Amino acid sequence: MVSPDFPQRKRVSTQKSSDLGWWLGGFLFGFAVGLALSLTYGWVLDPRPLPVRPADLARRDKEIYLRLIASSFLYNRDKERAKARLDELEYPDPARAVAILAEQDIDRGRDARDIVALVALADTLGQTSGKMAVFLATPTPHPTATPTLAPTPTPRPTSTPTPRTPIPTTTPTPTRTPTRTATPLPTVATPTRTPTATSSPTPTRTPTPTPGPDAPYGVAQSVPLCDKTSGGLLRIYIRDRLGIGVPGVEITLSWPGGKDKLFTGFKPDVDPGYADFQMKPGEIYQIEPVGVGTAGRIPEINISPNDLCPDLPAGVAPSWQIVFQQGAGGS
Asked: What angle do CA 207, 209, 213 make, to 5 degrees?
């Protein structure tokens, strides 16, 4: 016999299966949407950078890394550590890479401190060139003070007394009446004293104090040059406290019509601390070394006055020479 409630049970079972399908479909749809949104945010909107090795850096970032390695080497002079850091960049020839970057920075006129650090590292690794040689400054030893010997006193001469010369006694002539004749006493010669030589002390030379290594630079000389062969040439010298030319110093020239930048050391045949510039009559030039401490006012130069070099031919402007030296021009 068939139960009268069988069709109702069948409808309930079918409804439960349909609800389960909807739940499962909603879950899968929500999971797919959440996964897509997560991947979009993680890969596109806010990607997390992966660990990057120095060898994987871009070319510009590698150049920055090389300058940092050179600056660290210039400070601690640790060659092995610098070589280990260069090996991380995986250059075929690390020393040549440092030398190429140093020459490029020289051509671009970058900061002289970066150039000096790169040149020092390249030179230690055995890579040098004529362009880099001007930035290889040889340290000058500090002068040692020579003690002044005290004058040796001259011994006083002793006076030598003259020996007494006895005067012969006169023998009395016998007479009828013997007269007693007094015998004169012998005369004692007075010794002549030789004047005592007084030792004159040798005057001690007062040493000129040498400026310290941190002394500022000032104008030691600024004079016109009546040179017929190079009219209007500005000759600049940068010298340290011992008078040695300093290469690699940046110099800024400014005038009402423009501005220019120079570096010392590109003409080592003249002087390691030499640089020059072709001036124009009628301009007033201001000269200022950059990167070294300066003292005093910024010098100004004008080659227009006719009384500077009256013997020069017409149309030939006078030249000018200016010397900046450490410890000079304190006012």
From this structure: 145
3-state class percentages of the chain: helix first, strand second, coil last, to nearest 5: 30, 15, 55
- What is the spatial distance between Cα 47 and Cα 51, in angstroms, rounded to a whole number? 13
Cα–Cα distances in angstroms (integers) from residue 301 to residues 10, 116, 207, in the given order: 111, 30, 34
Which segments of 171-269 are extended strands (E)?
Answer: 217-225, 233-239, 250-255, 258-263
pLDDT band at 228; cut points 50, 70, 90? confident
> Which run of H or E residues covers position 275?
strand 274-278
The span from the CA of 258 to the CA of 80, in Å, is 46
What per-residue string of b and e applies to 269-289 under the rule 16 or more CB within 10 Å gives b?
eebbbbbbbebeeeeebebeb
What confidence score (pLDDT) does residue 64 get? Answer: 93
The predicted structure's pLDDT at residue 131: 78
Exposed/middle/buried for residue 249 (C-beta within 10 Å: 0-12, 13-18, 19+): buried
- Integer Cα distance of 294 and 224 in angstroms: 22
Identify the three-state secondary structure at position 258: strand
Instruction: Identify the CA nearest to 78 among candidates 121, 126, 127.
Output: 121
pTM value surpassing 0.85: no
Length of the chain as a residue count = 331
Over the stretch 155-192, which tens digit does the pLDDT of each residue have?
A: 565 555 555 555 555 555 554 544 454 445 444 445 55
Bridge partners (DSSP) listed for residue 287: 253
Sign of the CA dihedral with 70 first, then 73, 79, and 82 last: negative
In whole angstroms, what is the distance from residue 331 CA to residue 329 CA? 6
For the beta carbon of residue 222, count every other beta carbon within 10 angstroms: 15
Q: What percent of the chain has a predicted confidence (pLDDT) above 70?
A: 70
Rounded distance, CA 316 to CA 314, Å? 6
